[in-house]
Amino acid sequence: MPLAWVDFAITGCDSAPTPDDAGMPGPCTGATPLSLTFTAIAPAPIDAYLWDFGDGDTSTETAPIHVYAAPGVYGVSLAVGGPGGTASQDKPAVVVARAAEFASPCADDAQCGAGLECVCGASDGCGAVLPFGLCAASCSGSTPCASGVCADLAPAPGPADDWRRTLCVPSCSGGTTCPAGLTCQNLRGADGNWIEGCFAPGALAPIGASCRDGAGDPDDSRCASGSCADLGARGLCVASCSGGDCPGGSACATFEDGSTGPWCVAGCATASCDGDPWLACQAPGGTDPLDFTVDETPDAAGYCAPKACTGAAECGLDGACVNGFCGPG
Length: 329
Known about the structure:
Blueprint lengths: L6 E5 L16 E4 L2 E8 L6 E5 L5 E2 L5 E4 L3 E11 L2 E14 L6 E2 L10 E3 L13 E4 L12 E4 L13 E4 L13 E6 L5 E6 L28 E2 L6 E2 L1 E2 L9 E6 L7 E4 L12 E4 L9 E3 L8 E4 L12 E4 L2 E4 L1
Parallel strand pairs: 2-8
Antiparallel strand pairs: 1-3, 3-6, 4-5, 4-7, 7-8, 9-11, 10-11, 12-13, 14-15, 16-17, 18-20, 19-20, 19-22, 21-23, 24-25
């Protein structure tokens, strides 16, 4: 059969190209980095392909996958050959790569829309903290966010990663769903108050999570609160409070001996003491030095606090029962 003509289809667009009034399909659109698959359509066998994607890249593959890294309008052409001859197809302005929107994945600043930068992009060296570069904007108490809420992602000195600063993140208050790859978390706002924002899971530990570093020392920079208490075998993320200013899932606790706190302590309905053998879900009340009261109707599941004990065997490896509570031996 003669190779009288050739056409190609594009998949990976935001939506199927819509035909115009003349019946011609509209462009394939999507946000950068835009990954598209190209497939040839012809009435006869094809032995050779030459694709030109309009951004300087070409391919000789049968059905290539091409990524448009920068926003723009691109024409695509295909030249083929086979036993039945040769044919070509040229489609100007067939791909429209849009700038990535706020909180969208990115690889570099050029892919993000106006006023945004690619935080932890390919060249920023953020390691595995973020699952991908994130289009976002810096903010402060005097520079509000055009989108989202202003989160203090560096509540304590720590590694000089690009994301450790005040940054606009999507708000998730009221049950709003976070973009893919991000989770709703309690974060410190730029004004010091607690906010609900979407960020990379595990980047900052919540109240009640463990926070010692590799040497076993409390590491404030691991906590969203900016404070790692020397409690438990693995440290404990806490936050100073004066009543009513703790994040959701925690309460402001006042300890009986007055030597610590008041601190925000995690409710065990939402946390489990992070598996620390020296901590447990404790009910408030009592008279021992580490007993406490909370500024709310006590959670029936209790709160993450030093574990009461009667012997060292209850405190796990390297633990000791001191004054009725688990601690270092």
